[in-house]
Amino acid sequence: MEEGVVNEILQGPLRDVFDSKQLITDISGSGNNWAVGHKVFGRLYQEQILEKLRKSAEHCDCLQCFFIIHSMGGGTGSGLGTFLLKVLEDEFPEVYRFVTSVYPSGEDDVITSPYNSILAMKELNEHADCVLPIDNQSLFDIISKIDLMVNSGKLGTTIKPKSLVTSSAGALKKQHQKPFDAMNNIVANLLLNLTSSARFEGSLNMDLNEISMNLVPFPQLHYLVSSLTPLYTLADVNIPTRRLDQMFSDAFSKDHQLIRADPKHSLYLACALMVRGNVQVSDLRRNIERLKPSLQFISWNQEGWKTSLCSVPPVGHSHSLLALANNTCVKPTFMELRERFMRLYKKKAHLHHYLQIEGMEESCFMEAVSSLSTLIEEYNQLDATRSMPVEDLPRLSVAV
């Protein structure tokens, strides 16, 4: 909502990407307060937001879904972002709502981020169809790996000066600085791969709505862990191509996850593989069969794979893979968030900033943490089934 931040975009290199008539700002932001974003700006700008949404929707030939891209730690992203989810659900109930949520790291600079994140989580639980949680720390680790590769000279020689991974002076960004443009670029690549089937031809295209249909067996458990390979899809970095089979292995390693998680040692409910480039269906099948023994799928969905092939690879690469996993490995992120919330809430620290906003009561906090605890418990129950044997399903007898 901060006018200055949006104006920076309008004066920057991306200004032509946005329709300036579709931008909404206030003078100041939400002051890192979920209640201001949700209760104040939400009410204030609801009609204006709806009018602009309807205008955009009218231009669509086939409206597949809405993407909401927001951060959880601040006030506007968490508050107004989740208010918007409810508005979309009421106005366009048939259209899927995909949310890319950037979760705060333990060392973030917003003291109230645990409050904002927990309050936003309740809304995500209730009003989102699919949530792709992304962790600031994971993004930073990925960019640090790029720095290491650049410094070790493993890249080849083509690195543009003044690129996203280099500073304006042409020297590499120091590791302690947070290169937000490069971090955002990783998220952009996730979304590019996710929408590739809608934009390009392919032998096995996947409709966005199929993701939710195939990967979300229970409405509450709609959090999908994403991994990208090659990870370094910044178009201006000359990364050597990974071998095809290696690419599939990478997608299941914890180093390639966009959230700090280890899906290989947790339970899969379902998994989607979205491949781009010159890859055959037989390559997909071979790699799934190769990886299956090392992955633990829930007993009632041992064949829980969804695949798509798009023939156009990302710029500068021969092929790429986006894996989306509905996996219990997201649970530690939620537990850590709840812990950080409780540390503040036990002392009632900073609570008055929220309670002075009209419509905000202390019960909102208790309901939000209760909603998160219920979600964690659902994951616990699934994890408890990990040692159960896979059911031998009876085969259909055909009389000859």
What can you see in these coordinates?
The radius of gyration is 22 Å and the shape is globular. It has helices at 3-11, 34-58, 76-91, 113-127, 136-152, 180-194, 196-199, 208-215, 244-251, 281-291, 331-346, 351-355, 362-383, and strands spanning 65-71, 96-103, 130-135, 225-229, 267-277, 296-297, 305-310, 319-327. Strands 4, 5, 6, 7 and 8 form a five-stranded mixed sheet that branches. Residues 155-176 have low confidence and may be disordered. With 400 residues, it is an alpha/beta fold. The chain is 43% helix and 14% strand. Residues 1-202 form the Tubulin/FtsZ GTPase domain. It is found in: Cytoplasm, Cytoskeleton. Keywords: Cytoplasm, Cytoskeleton, GTP-binding, Microtubule, Nucleotide-binding. Pfam families: Tubulin, Tubulin_C.
Brief overview, please?
Helix content is 43%, strand content 14%. The protein contains 13 helices and eight strands.
Instruction: List the secondary-structure elements in sequence, H or E.
Output: HHEHEHEHHHHEHEHEEEHHH
* Silhouette: globular
**Approximate strand percentage:** 5-15%
Sheet having the most strands: 5 strands, mixed
Give the CA-CA distance, first to last residue: 70 Å
Mean pLDDT: 86
Instruction: List segments where confidence is low: pLDDT < 50 over at least 5 consecutive residues.
Output: 155-176
Residue share in helices? 40-55%
GO biological process, one term: microtubule-based process
Protein name: Tubulin epsilon chain isoform X2
Domain Tubulin/FtsZ GTPase: 1-202
GO molecular function: GTP binding
